[in-house]
Amino acid sequence: MTVAIDRPSQIKTDQVVTIEGDWAKFKLIQQGCAQSRGVRLFYFNGTIEILMPAFRHELFKSVVGFLIETFLFHYEIEFTPTGSATQEVEGVVAAEADESYEIQGYRLAIEIDFTNGSVSKLERYRALGTNEVWIWEDGVLDIYWLKTDGYQKADRSQIPALAAIDRAFMAQCILMGETSRIQAGKRLLGAELGD
């Protein structure tokens, strides 16, 4: 008997399951999924979300992370990559960003959105106090900066170390990175260096 196992390149769309439940139920599911590679869990406002990202999801999260890290490395800006580590406020919210960073005291979360959950994602990150959220959806990069009354869209990063990065230009570099990270990195740095 042959069993077909889905490889990341075979999974065409993100698989998302949303269920109602309290924090205790979330923690039980989290425990049960501890050894499951690639599964991401979220909790907010009585809703538990389980995400199994598709290949394109993982590709774009990696490209965005690569470009941010290339930029920071080039300009010798120290940062801490926190990846998809679980961020939580007990009993209130838990999120696993696609990529995340601490840069000079600011917290940045990167989300690749193929499931149209941008609004709920922002509410989760607001509850976590994340300074800035970048959401990549259908070839468009949106940057959200946390203000006292919620997130506000911005044309460029409000994190001082990344403020030189224009949202539309970064989106072009991300699309280029789908086929060549080297060319995307060169383009990003070339524009920043005035080449």
Protein model, in words:
- With 195 residues, the chain is of the alpha+beta class.
- The protein has a single domain, classed as Alpha-Beta Complex (tt1808, chain A), CATH 3.90.1570.
- Helix content is 33%, strand content 29%.
- It has 5 helices and 11 strands, in the order E-H-E-E-H-E-E-E-E-E-H-E-E-E-H-H.
- The chain has helices at residues 23-32, 55-74, 118-128, 167-177, 181-193, and strands at residues 15-20, 40-44, 47-52, 80-81, 87-89, 93-95, 99-103, 106-112, 132-137, 140-147, 150-154.
- The strands form 2 sheets. It has a 6-stranded mixed sheet with strand order 4-7-8-9-10-11, sandwiched between helices.
- Helix 3 links the parallel strand 8 and strand 9.
- The longest helix is centred in the N-terminal third of the chain and has 20 residues, at 55-74.
Topology (elements, then pairings):
Layout: E1 15-20, H1 23-32, E2 40-44, E3 47-52, H2 55-74, E4 80-81, E5 87-89, E6 93-95, E7 99-103, E8 106-112, H3 118-128, E9 132-137, E10 140-147, E11 150-154, H4 167-177, H5 181-193
Largest sheet, strands/sense/barrel:
6 strands, mixed
CATH topology: tt1808, chain A
CATH class category label: Alpha Beta
Beta-strand level of the residues, as a percent range?
Answer: 25-35%
Query: How many runs of DSSP E, i.e. beta strands?
Result: 11
The shape is globular
What is the total domain count?
1
Average pLDDT score: 86
- Taking strands numbered 1, 2, ... along the chain, how are they ordered across the largest sheet? 4-7-8-9-10-11
Question: First CA to last CA: what distance?
Answer: 58 Å
Low-confidence stretches: 1-9
Radius of gyration: 17 Å
DSSP helical segment count? 5
Helix content: 25-40%
What is the N-to-C succession of helices and strands? EHEEHEEEEEHEEEHH
Name the structural class. alpha+beta
What is the second-level CATH architecture? Alpha-Beta Complex
